[in-house]
Amino acid sequence: MEIPAAAVEEMVTASSPFWKGRSVFVTGAAGFIGSWLTKDLLARGARVTALIDDLPRRSELARSGDVRRIRVARGRLENLALLRRIIRSNSIDTVFHLGAQTIVSDAYRAPFDTFESNVRGTYNLMEACRQAPSVGRIIVASSDKAYGDQKILPYREDTALQGRFPYDVSKSCTDLIAQSYYHAYRLPVAILRCGNVFGGGDLNDSRIVPGTIRALLRGEAPVIRSDGKYVRDYIYVKDVSAAYLTVAERLVAGKLQGEAFNFGNDKPWSVLAMVALLRKALKREDLRPEILNVAKAEIREQYLASGKARKMLKWRPRYSMSTAVAETVAWYRDAES
Q: Taking the model in full, what pTM does it have?
């Protein structure tokens, strides 16, 4: 049964008082997922400190005005001394680590920068947290890409992490570093591995959803870099934000520490099917996609089993695909107007 969007929003803001007054540090808060997570934390009364290197004016964090409601620390994850100061001076209780270079094609072109941000940035943050007694929980953003190319699908949490291409390797490393700090030092870490996240506020047109929507809004044919048959697990950004909060709340009193969870809709979509859904939502089925078939360093089929999260956390997506797509299209229409 589909839950109306308004009812979902009411459930989100009427949750437990867990976050009221809690000191939270978010890396990647200016990014796509980080912006929505920060919004949800503020709605629950958390005191948010964010590490921001660059703040695009079209970022949801800036566009919504949420950036004026948080404490901003300027800098990069590669600066260990800065991370130590932020965590100690703000008596940080909860850390959400979403900061990363997130574009597969950029990682292929510039692997060094990707490894610096995603690998060095992660062990810097874990080390800063290890040295800070105030930190009670750390939630780390991994990815379905961390699993690499597997013969057996869907990915489950016990599937080996074996990235091969630069971006995939960086996420495998992020995941394994977080696990290492739990096993070696009992750092209170939990790891989220999500499918392809979509929603309003994704500014990377190289991704299929924002790229397609913006092309259709301009009256142009959407461009598909692959042959269109690549398969992915798509999940709405608001469901992902709720997943992060759910895991963090359950990390209290040592529960779930060291665990990793997959989050997805358990229904894979081909790129062509996703583009068709967007064309229908925008009533531009006359604009047929241009298929380039030039994709590099991308895995052909990736999708997740999220049964562990559904069973252990009682989590499930709150938004149907139709509602999620409608809200996403509305965000871009408003942003482009």
A: 0.93
